[in-house]
Amino acid sequence: MKKRLPDYLKRPIIDTDKTRTVRRILKENCLNTVCENARCPNKNECYTKNTATFLIMGNVCTRNCRYCNISCEKPEPLDLGEPLHIAKAVKALGLKYSVITSVTRDDLPDGGAEHFVNCINEIRKLTPDVKIEILTPDFKGDKNSLDMIIKARPEVFNHNIETVKELFKIARPQGNYQLSLDVLKYVKDNSDILTKSGLMVGLGEDFDQIEETFVDLKSVGCDIVTVGQYIQPSKMHLEVAKYYTPQEFELIQQAAQKIGIKHFQIGPLVRSSYRAAELV
To answer: What is the mean pLDDT of the segment spanning 19-33?
Structure first.
């Protein structure tokens, strides 16, 4: 029997001049956002604050993670004008903090690292004071790709672990838990860039496994951790095994503090980029 979505996970539809302006700017620049493509529950709240998380390199993915609403198909060629369009949108929205994420592009030799760098550079040309957070795939752990990112010096490098080690192959069959940790460690060991990672709960993990994930993230020097409730995008995706209560999220916060995670955003509707500027 399908579990009923608790009221504390429901968000009202907001349609104001500000949210319409954000949608117009995104449409004018032919941009994708993770807000729309991944059906983020915080989309309207973020739009009212003139922010959005840009989704680069198309809106289809080369991996088929079983929790994600973005479809797995053959991707289109890169839009070489996209970095400039992102920069123009950042300026038009008046952002002081910009978050850029992407689909996974295993078809590209560098996994799309150069495209991330081009986005960072174009934003800095138009709005040099904007802080930039990037949320990247694992680039298959390729050090040349990671070195490109490090050289571009975003303020925050985010790579999501997504779930506990025991569920990783179920949720992310084409990913690797240790590889994701290694990516975070490489960036931390070779730069002073803030590192960040996030995971979902509700896929069937237990509390000890959540704590073990915190320990693993701390061991690679991860500066910021986000934790939120998994919500099934469709019947084709993994079912929700458990809806954590707000009180249980408080216990997860306490566990993060106990383990020594200094900066975190933990709650039912928290997502990787939710209130990202406030955390930094």
So the answer is: 64
User: What backbone phi and psi angles, to 5 degrees, belong to 56?
Assistant: -100, 165
Instruction: Show the domain range for 137.
Output: 7-198
* 180-184: Cβ within 8 A, 24+ apart: 180/138, 181/216, 181/217, 181/219, 181/220, 182/141, 182/220, 183/138, 183/139, 183/141, 183/146, 183/159, 184/157, 184/159, 184/217, 184/220, 184/221, 184/222
**pLDDT per residue over 171-206, tens digit each?**
998 899 999 999 999 999 999 999 999 999 999 999
pTM passes above 0.85: yes
Instruction: Residue 93: give its domain's CATH number.
Output: 3.20.20.70
State residue 196 phi and psi, 5-degree precision: -145, 150
Coil vs helix vs strand at 100 = strand
At 41-82, the pLDDT tens digits run 545 555 555 566 788 998 888 877 777 777 778 888 999 999
Nearest to 100 by CA among 90, 88, 110, 111: 90
135 contacts 101 by C-beta, under 8 angstroms: yes
Beta-carbon-side half-sphere exposure of residue 89 (alpha carbons within 13 Å): 31
In sequence order, the 6+-apart residues with CB closer than 8 A to the CB of 3 are 239, 240, 242, 243
SS3 of 72, please? strand
Per-residue tokens: 17: 């001049």
Q: How many structural domains is the chain composed of? A: 1
